[in-house]
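User: My advisor, Dr. K., asked me to get a structural model of this assembly before our group meeting. I'm new to this, so sorry if the format is off. These are the inputs:
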Amino acid sequence: MTYAATTALKNSSSIIGYKTYLELIPEFLKGKNVVSSSMMKEVERGKKALDMAEDGNTVALVSGGDPGIYAMAGLVFELAQKGGYLCRIEIIPGLAAINSCAARLGAPLMHDFAAISLSDLLTPMEVILRRLEAAASADFVTAIYNPRSKKRTRQIVQTQEIFLKYRNPETVVGIVTNATRENENIIITSLANMLDEEIGMQSTVIIGNSQTYRWGDIMVTPRGYSDKYSL
Amino acid sequence: MTYAATTALKNSSSIIGYKTYLELIPEFLKGKNVVSSSMMKEVERGKKALDMAEDGNTVALVSGGDPGIYAMAGLVFELAQKGGYLCRIEIIPGLAAINSCAARLGAPLMHDFAAISLSDLLTPMEVILRRLEAAASADFVTAIYNPRSKKRTRQIVQTQEIFLKYRNPETVVGIVTNATRENENIIITSLANMLDEEIGMQSTVIIGNSQTYRWGDIMVTPRGYSDKYSL
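Assistant: The format is fine. Below is the predicted structure of the whole assembly, which you can bring to the meeting.
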């Protein structure tokens, strides 16, 4: 967590968020008006936060990771615009899965990368497939968000198929589940073997580019210094 | 800054970094063995940090943004491997330009995105152009790192040309210079007009996807909720 995030929590009179995230910050909830909600209720949660702010409260809407990366920030602006809300909205950035998972794997994001969510709940599957194809073909390191859920299991198989068209089966792949939490699980494997590993709702998969290599339990994408300088 | 980063600084006996970044954290330097170095000396700086750690010191190598995104983390692992260093290396993630610039612009990174550096110092220009083409054609929101320097001015023009092949000239573009610093400058413009604005070494350019829109001084890429839910 950043100092800016904790300052915002301290300065808020109301704190609203998905239950699981609020349970991670009990020390900030004391003496606050706390509204905890269940998963998949993003629209209601966003509206509730705006309503409370419009009533004159200073409201912290808590997001996991970075609210600005695949998270609540955009929805709140959309709701504010459509609902004619006038309250001031400030986005406080945080560490997204790409930041924390990359750090736990070593240094996979030293070069150009793409982030792609495999969730087709809000995005047509053909758009997702086109982006996977583009990222694979142009040798982007690729961070896969929402790789697999109980019901949605085919997308990660399609992802592997697409990347195998362009990259060596030995391409290094990192899988981080529950990054920085108690039950964190870090795996470094290959494009060929990635589907043998545990990949779930809380996992982020990072597929290396053609230069990414493994050094022990570390995944490194070279920036290119060794081509130019003697290391 | 995160609590983890300040804890690491407090627990270090030696702090090493690029002069400009160390000047931002004077309160952490007192009583420490401080090694400040000039720009473009990344290899020397990384080796120095490893040498000091190998001698038994706890060393903090300070990076701007997130050390794991286009920064020093990878080089340190490469140097450690090639030099046979045995010291323990921990990467502490931070807020990268994509995190902080997105937050200052509103919510441009709500959907799949690519990050591409235009610096051809360590990367062949044909690789960069191929990635720009892929990101533009597959409708990725695209964050451009190192968009322009005094000597390197052509790449951002080529970037605009490539994106204009695939996207509307009215596509929303955000430019953030010196994010969160005193002389911060935030501009929201269009793909057609982006080159009229100040873009320099300290700027990050975020090119919206086909759905990104402007709401006053806010740049928003919708996640897709409005297609599924009534907002």
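One thing worth pointing out at the meeting: The longest strand of chain B covers residues 172-177.

User: Perfect, thanks a lot.
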